[in-house]
Write a structure and sequence with these properties.
The protein has two helices and five strands. The protein is of the alpha+beta class. The chain has one domain (11-122): Trna Endonuclease, Chain: A, domain 1 (3-Layer(aba) Sandwich). A five-stranded mixed β-sheet has the order 1-2-3-4-5.
């Protein structure tokens, strides 16, 4: 019998899966997907969704080790600035400035327990509204 080493999932793979699960979760709450993984020099936005007439920029965070901080706590001020700058770039590029109200949400996903994930959805996480 030959045993093959199965490599652990990479951080990027885990992030991709977490974003897909967060998107599914938000869609179940009535949001619609507008864009995913928007990147520019300023930063990256995981999900861009519509909640009615509001454009929602979503940061997805996955934490498997809660020793230091929770997933939500990991979106610090510096990370918020990167997301805000990327959102401004997105709005300019898509010519959406002054056309839609916007907000910033965080979906924090705890490590899976028996293939179940715990979602913490923080609306208007940056307190911009």
């Amino acid at each position: 019998m030959i045993f093959r080493h199965r490599p652990a999932a990479t951080t990027a793979t885990k992030g991709f899966v977490a974003e897909a699960r967060a998107e599914k979760f938000l869609r179940s709450k009535g949001l619609q997907t507008s864009d995913k993984n928007y990147r520019c020099k300023s930063g990256e936005i995981d999900l861009i969704m519509r909640d009615g007439d509001t454009l929602v920029f979503v940061e997805v965070r996955l934490r498997s080790n809660r020793r230091f901080e929770t997933a939500a706590e990991s979106v610090n001020f510096r990370k918020q600035l990167k997301i805000i700058n990327a959102a401004q770039h997105y709005l300019l590029e898509k010519r959406l400035t002054d056309k839609l109200p916007c907000r910033f949400d965080v979906v924090a996903i705890s490590n899976e327990i028996d293939n179940e994930h715990e979602f913490e959805w923080i609306t208007d996480a940056f307190g911009t509204n």
